[in-house]
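Course assignment 3, question 2. Fill in each field.
Student: A.L.
Task: Predict the tertiary structure for the chain below.
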Amino acid sequence: MAPRINLPPITRALLLILVALSTLNATLRFQKWSTSTSAADQAKPSTVSYLTSPRWAIPYLVLIPSESIVYPWTFLTSALIENNIVSLGISGAVLWFGGRYLERAWGGREYTKFVLFVTMIPNIVTFFIYALWHGIRGYSPPSATPINGLLALSASFLVSLKQLVPEHTVSVARSLVSIRLKHLPALFVLANMLSGPLLGTDTAFWLSLFGFYTGWIYLRFFRLADIGTAESATTAEGATMRGDPSETFAFVSFFPEIVHPFLAPLCNGVYDLLVQLKLIRPFPDFDVESASESAAARLAGGLPQNGNAAGNGARTMEAERRRALALRALDERLNAAQPAAAPTAVRSSDDSETAAKEAQA
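Answer field:
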């Protein structure tokens, strides 16, 4: 009996598309290389770079600033194409483990919206940065650097895990190196920043940087999450809250605490400016409190060890949070009703005394 692949549907589809598009891209690059070079050139060892050299990039599959503007679908397909077997294996592992966990924690619909947001926007911004740079220079190189790969999605996955389980520790090399998940997004961007001048992978820096930003922006301000209410505590559905205004997911929380006093005023100023410009809405106090309670529940729950536990753990924490919020909402309503009832009781007593006096008269 063949082993069963335990993957949710969207993650399984993304993994298959990644393998299919990467294989197609490698095949077309090889054909382009073999038909464009002579036999003598093909015999040179340096020409094996047909998988990495921008000269052989396929403009209708990956983003090329000087050519792909007429192929708008490449803003999406380029995010699911890798040029070599090593990067393909790494990206496949990212989708397998990260995608499986997030899709089960959020559901297929929210997961799909998140993937589209954090893959297309970094590609679009990076594309226009290179196009603007070529325009400023007044020169477009004959072999412009192609933009492709799963780096933006990888960075946003790390941001998502930081939101869900910020205090979980990842151990590397038999626990010789231990890193908390909340520090991994910034370290990932830093590593890609250094790889640009060292390895010539400048597109990796831009994709990881914008993947980090778009992932945080979407989760902080736009993603719809369920919250419990008094009416929905005993049902499967609850009210929704847009974004995550908890302090544990603030922008400064991605950086070491020593720089928080310097970054916090700047971040707060940017937030106030965006609110005044009505680009984002201010967080209601109830949303902040609900998000903080949800973050505390996630901290207590930790990171599940497998996919099934991920879904069960997320549902259990959500149910506990809904019950707590329902009890608090009910208590608030009872406390609000008591002061209103007291004047009514006083008025009734006064009316009774007045009626008694009139009857005696």
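Instructor remarks: The longest strand covers residues 169-172. The first helix runs from residue 9 to 36.
Grade: pending
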